[in-house]
Write a structure and sequence with these properties.
SH3 type barrels, 5-stranded antiparallel beta sheet, 5-stranded mixed beta sheet, 27 strands
């Protein structure tokens, strides 16, 4: 464990900024003020700037107020309302005559963790389990343009304590090779049994994934028996999600994804979880924490999934990635058929 010192002055400056930035949002007229978060209470993180609160569950209904990006709110059970064309849209009823579109709310919990005694040599995988957490440099300065979010995953390199006895994990920036630092209790160490191969007794060539581009549905088969089905999102641009036969021969549990220079859709997404590549250009199945809009075109070509669904696929597909490895590549993988529709 490295001994990284934060000066008292710099740490107080960093923490002071963090407290101001992560204060609970001011209550809206129709919203009860949030008290202390309870781990088992469903919360939602707002994913859109000025997310409207509608009078009715209808995008054409009058807008009464709005939530701000990164607000964290209590959410009720989602319900679905019909839209023109018989498409269903998810909504949360926040109060009487107050509705917010579920597509732009990330379902989250607030579950701080016990700090690990030691980090294994070579590192291990960690998952963010709080709605959002500040990110720091090694000298204690907070990176004001960066937060990490619930459901994202990172490779933990080390841990240390500051002058106040607070524990931090050092996380790998797998794009630049540098490090980030976050409060350790915001990160859950992923246990080895969580990464074990699912359906290990099924023959490798008996597993198959089918993605139907028409209804944005992913289906997994064992011996042509359906074992898993879920809605996903695909590429905005025609052809960005390729059609054809592929295989999941490259996998990693986390990745910082950054747009290509000529890509009009700019993004910088650290900690993308449960990545299963299917092309050399980087098209992959992976978990998503920046939208909740399933069954739509949303990506630059990758197949976006709910983090829990992406984790299932990551564990079920071949090759298997061992607990102690950050990246696995093989000359084989689970077959993937991407089709236009039936």
């Amino acid at each position: 464990m490295r001994d990284i010192k934060l000066t008292r002055r710099r740490f107080l400056q960093a923490v002071g900024l963090g407290v101001l930035s992560f204060a609970l949002p001011a209550p809206k007229p129709t919203e009860a003020r949030l008290g202390k978060f309870i781990p088992d209470i469903p919360l939602g993180r707002v994913l859109k700037y000025a997310l409207p609160l509608y009078k009715e569950p209808d995008l054409l209904s009058p807008v009464l107020d709005h939530y701000d990006f990164d607000d964290v709110i209590r959410i009720p059970k989602v319900f679905y309302a019909e839209t023109p064309g018989s498409k269903k849209r998810g909504w949360y009823k926040m109060a009487e005559n107050n509705y917010v579109e579920a597509a732009w709310i990330q379902p989250v919990f607030d579950k701080p963790n016990r700090v690990a005694d030691e980090i294994p040599e070579g590192g291990c995988l960690g998952e963010i389990t709080v709605p959002k957490t500040p990110v720091y440099r090694a000298d204690g300065r907070r990176i004001l343009t960066r937060k990490f979010y619930y459901g994202s995953t990172f490779w933990i390199l080390d841990k240390f304590k500051d002058d106040f006895g607070l524990s931090y994990y050092e996380l790998l920036d797998d794009y630049s090779g540098n490090s980030w630092y976050v409060r350790a209790n915001a990160v859950r160490i992923v246990a080895p049994e969580e990464l074990s191969l699912l359906s290990p007794d099924v023959a490798p060539d008996a597993k198959r994934i089918e993605l139907n581009m028409r209804d944005k549905t992913l289906r997994a088969y064992e011996y042509e028996r359906l074992v898993f089905e879920t809605l996903v999102t695909t590429g905005l641009k025609d052809g960005s999600t390729p059609v054809g036969q592929f295989m999941t021969n490259r996998k990693r549990p986390c990745r910082r994804m950054i747009h290509e220079p000529d890509n009009p859709y700019t993004y910088d997404l650290p900690g993308v979880p449960w990545v299963c590549y299917i092309t050399l250009k980087g098209v992959a199945f992976h978990g998503t924490y920046w939208h909740n809009n399933w069954g739509e075109h949303m990506s630059s070509g990758c197949i976006n999934m709910k983090p829990t669904d992406a984790k299932w696929l990551y564990r079920w597909t071949l090759p298997h990635v061992p607990f102690e490895k950050y990246y696995e590549v093989a000359d084989y993988g689970t077959q993937v058929d991407i089709i236009w529709g039936y």
